[in-house]
Structures are given as structure tokens and as C-alpha cells.
Amino acid sequence: MTPRSRGTTSVRRGGGFTLVEVLATLVLIGIVIPVALKGVSVAVNSASHAKRQAEAATLAESKLSEMVAQGDWSMGAGSGDFGTDYPGYTWTCQTATPDPNVNVTEVTVSVVWKERGQDRQLNMSTLVYAGSGTGVTGNAGGLP
């Protein structure tokens, strides 16, 4: 006779999980996954905003340098877009003379774009010597 047939039974637990363990795991996953997805969403939105803001800064710097180099700033206010390479970005230029006793003009280029349904704006300014009208500040180092 084998030990089983003599009336002794051995209780053997299976290798699976209990219902309470499975339910606790599901509750924990139900809490963690939405929080993690929200964090990923915030990170993606921040990266997109940083990319667009860096792009706008590059465009503003380029337009400001172009206007100062070509003397277009002296015509006063202007506006436009950046063509098909940068759709959605527009620029405006304004000039101001902070102090009439100093022959310097402040040139400000504003770049505007839409992000998530809202208008965003980046301003970049420089001071230009207004005596020559071309943005050239005179001789360098006292040389003729």
C-alpha cells in the first residue's frame, strides 16, 4: 500500500497567486500607470515647447542680425513671416530711442507662433548706433 491509500492526505499549495494578491497588484497598477503617463505627457509637452522656443530664438536672432546688417531697422516698424521653411512663425520689428541725447536706437524683433491653441511670443533686442543709418558702429580700435 502506498501512503496515500492509507488515508493520509497531504495538502499541497499550488504555485499560483491568490485572488487577494492579484487584486492588490491590479489596484497598484491602476494607480501607477496614470501617474506615469501624466509624467510622460508633461515631459513631451515641455520638450516641444523648448524646441519651439529655441527655434523662435534662432529665427529672431537671424532676422535681427539681417535687419541691422542691411540697415532695414532704420525704416521703423516692419513685419512678415519666415516662409515655407518655418510655417506658423511670424515676426514684427519695432524701434525706439530710449534717450534722445544718445545717438542709439533700440531695435526689437518679436517672433510669434501658436502652441496648443495659444499665441506665444519671444522678443529679442539690440542697440544700434543710429548715426550712420546702417548699423555700423564706426571705426574699430581707433583705426582710420
Query: Which strands sit side by side, in order, in the main sheet?
Result: 1-2-3-4
How many structural domains in the coordinates? 1
Helix coverage percent: 25-40%
Distinct helical segment count: 1
Would you give the CATH topology? Answer: Pantoate--beta-alanine Ligase, Chain: A,domain 2
Class from secondary-structure proportions: alpha+beta
Number of strands: 4
Q: Shape, please? A: rod-shaped
Gyration radius over CA = 34 Å
Task: Give the CA-CA distance, first to last residue.
Answer: 120 Å
Please describe what this structure looks like:
- By secondary structure, the chain is α+β, with helices and mostly antiparallel strands.
- The protein has one domain: Pantoate--beta-alanine Ligase, Chain: A,domain 2, CATH 3.30.1300.
- The chain is built from one helix and four strands.
- It has a four-stranded antiparallel β-sheet.
- A hairpin with a 7-residue loop joins strand 2 and strand 3 (104-115).
- The longest helix is centred in the first third of the chain and has 52 residues, at 19-70.
- The termini are far apart.
- Residues 133-144 have low confidence and may be disordered.
